[in-house]
Design goal:
The protein has ten helices and ten strands. By secondary structure, the chain is mostly helical. Strand 3 and strand 4 form a beta hairpin. The longest helix is centred in the C-terminal third of the chain and has 111 residues.
Length: about 375
């Protein structure tokens, strides 16, 4: 195969490869969506399915129903078969390996004929036979085959040569050429089919019918080309929408972060305030406790001093000492006993009850905010 193929040959190569096995088509079958696959590939693809089941096309996902007689009932793609044949003849894919059919046609001694056969260099499009240079010259000189089109094996076929390789043989009668088109059955048939099954049907010359069909296909192709162009114009929209979406959502994220940061800052300020307030309550209460404690300790010191003095006077004082101090000690004792230390403590230290009530904001589901979305694009369906 040449390192660089022409656009026509490249197109043929691309069209004749199965997208499942990535090999050249073997027994190509065409689905209703016009996608073609090898029969064996379809069998592997639908091995767990039965006739009547709906199966998506492996390429476009458009569903088709398995025929009653199984996958073998899916129509053959005769056009693709001819393209596969054209591929083998072009670009030298099989050049040097194709033998002359005329040289190797000795039925009496097939092995000897094959051994003596020379490589074919020409292919007759009408006879579907391969010939060497000498046999091809003889073939073109014969009156019955002088008008046959010969193409060179190993040479890149042109579009008009490929067009000549469209199906010309009847599927039912392989030795008959297709010449008639049944308008009622929408089938391309040979004269034998016409005589046996379509004689009472409205039929016409296939060449004449093909003219109208070509016009229809050309018209559809033009429309498809316009639709393809229009569809291609949609592609930049996705990139633009994606960029716009990314930028817009980046702004939304920034707004969310800003709102959350403000809320966090407010919470932090409130936390500091509450903790400071608690600390202030603590310091004030501690100061009160220390003050009252000092007062109680001072009162205890006075009581202890009076007690020690009285006990010393009783144990060591003379009658004169006792009589001299008794009245003053009694007055002081009565004075000290008038002081109710517990009542003083209760009055100096009023009851203190400190509690914390959590903010009700914690129960709000959308504390920072909410996201509103509308105008979203519907899902895009490709058919």
């Amino acid at each position: 195969m040449a390192a660089k193929k022409s656009s026509v040959v490249k197109e043929v190569y691309d069209m004749t490869e199965c997208c499942i096995c990535t090999e050249v088509f073997t027994d190509p079958r065409v689905l209703p969506c016009i996608h073609t696959f090898c029969l064996n590939c379809l069998m592997n693809y639908t091995k767990d399915k039965r006739p009547g089941d709906d199966i998506p096309c492996p390429l476009c996902r458009k569903e088709f129903t398995i025929p009653a007689d199984g996958l073998s009932g899916i129509p053959k793609n005769f056009f693709m078969e001819k393209l596969v044949s054209a591929r083998k003849l072009s670009a030298g894919e099989e050049a040097g390996h194709i033998l002359c059919d005329a040289c190797s046609s000795d039925e009496a001694r097939p092995s000897e004929a094959t051994a003596k056969a020379t490589p074919a260099t020409k292919h007759c499009l009408q006879c579907q036979q391969n010939y060497c240079d000498q046999c091809s010259q003889s073939h073109t000189k014969m009156k019955a085959t002088a008008s046959h089109a010969m193409v060179e094996i190993g040479k890149e076929l042109q579009k008009e040569e490929i067009a000549l390789r469209l199906p010309t043989k009847c599927e039912m009668h392989e030795d008959k050429e297709i010449e008639v088109f049944c308008l009622e059955c929408q089938l391309a048939i040979c004269m034998m089919c016409f005589v046996k099954s379509h004689k009472t049907h409205n039929c016409s010359d296939i060449e004449e019918v093909s003219i109208d069909h070509r016009k229809q296909i050309m018209n559809d192709t033009d429309k498809i080309s316009e639709l393809l162009k229009k569809t291609e114009g949609v592609l930049p929209r996705f990139e633009k929408e994606q960029n716009n979406l990314a930028n817009h959502l980046a702004d939304i994220k920034s707004e969310i972060n800003t709102a959350a940061d403000k809320l966090i800052a407010a919470v932090e300020r409130d936390r500091v305030r509450l903790l400071s307030e608690v600390e202030s309550i603590k310091l004030k209460r501690v100061k009160q406790l220390e003050t009252v404690k000092q007062e109680v300790e001072q009162h205890m010191a006075v009581l202890e001093s009076l007690k020690q003095y009285s006990e010393a006077l009783l144990s060591s004082g003379t009658a004169c000492d006792v009589t001299r101090s008794a009245n003053s000690l009694h007055s002081r004792a009565e004075e000290l006993m008038m002081f109710d230390v517990i009542s003083h403590v209760d009055r100096s230290l009023p009851s203190l009850n400190v509690n914390f009530t959590s903010s009700t904001l914690l129960g709000i589901e959308n504390l920072v905010g909410t996201i509103a979305k509308d105008g979203l694009y519907p899902r895009i369906l490709c058919r």
